[in-house]
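Exercise: predict the structure of this protein bound to adenosine-5'-tetraphosphate.
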Amino acid sequence: MKTILSGVQATGKMHIGNYLGAMKPWVDWQNQGRAFFFIPDLHTLNVRPDAETLRGNIYDTVAWLLAVGIDPRKSTIFVQSRVPAHAELCWILQNYVTMGELNRMTQYKDKSSKRGADGQVVALYTYPVLMAADILLYSADIVPVGEDQKQHVELTRDIATRMNNIYGDCFVVPEPALPQVGARVMSLTTPTIKMSKSDANQNGNIMLADEPKVITKKIKRAVTDSGSTIELSDDKPAIANLLQVYAGFSDMSVPEVANKYAGVGYGTFKTELAELVVEQISQLQMDYEVIRQDKKRLDDVIEEGSQRAAGIAQKKLNGIKQKIGLT
Ligand code: AQP
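Solution:
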């Protein structure tokens, strides 16, 4: 049986890129193997969130996972900081990765360029090493992620292979799995950059928590390309992105959506896209509101999942410590 693992940051603020690129596909993945979905709250510390906000965001994020359909009877849902083995393995792995490799990580370049000197914290730089520990502790075969995280999974593969070569069988070498639709949802205002929580222009994002009228307004104001009718083409990146969003929410393929709307005006297409997105997000929001009120249920999910994860992770860490001579 394959092991599947992935995570979503503890910001509580998910956009439709996180949803279509990661969380929605996880709902299918949980039926295809032994699945782990976690909240990487140690990663989230690199933006120095206020303590009370972080505490609440962890609950928000778990509630969103349940609302989109992650089922704790099928998947282990856990919080990273409750499993001490992540930080310990991260330290060990830092000895098997070079600064040259970390310097090539495009996410570090993107995120650090958006922050001032004070925001360029060491944990942002070493983020991919902690992510490698997250994956390798559970012997994950498959890591379903959006395209922006693919490079980090590839680095994880390099680290695992390196340690396997030095010490013999240490780790399973994981494969990234990108969804067919939604692997890279782009900003609605600047379709050349990915939709991102940290984008200064929040009109480019559709958040899962946005009200229907806000979603509709953002879609209606989304930039379009030259021309006036729907056509799938490499030189129409804005339309391609909107078609991708429609495909993601309708479970159609992008060419199917393009065929359905071929020759239709941008205005009509945007109206129907907004209706589709509003309908689906409204349902998710209703489920989320009910789940978020039930703190006892959320505590139980976190506690049970984190205990199960900690048992597996500690066993793996003990084996690695033995192999490398620490015990
Ligand atoms: N625009 C996107 N399109 C498709 N998938 C995306 N993901 C993120 N942005 C897009 C995927 O969502 C999962 C969880 O991501 P994360 O919580 O680790 O956040 P991130 O990758 O750092 O990107 P964000 O959410 O936009 O935050 P910032 O602004 O901090 O970069 C991952 O599988 C990710 O690939």
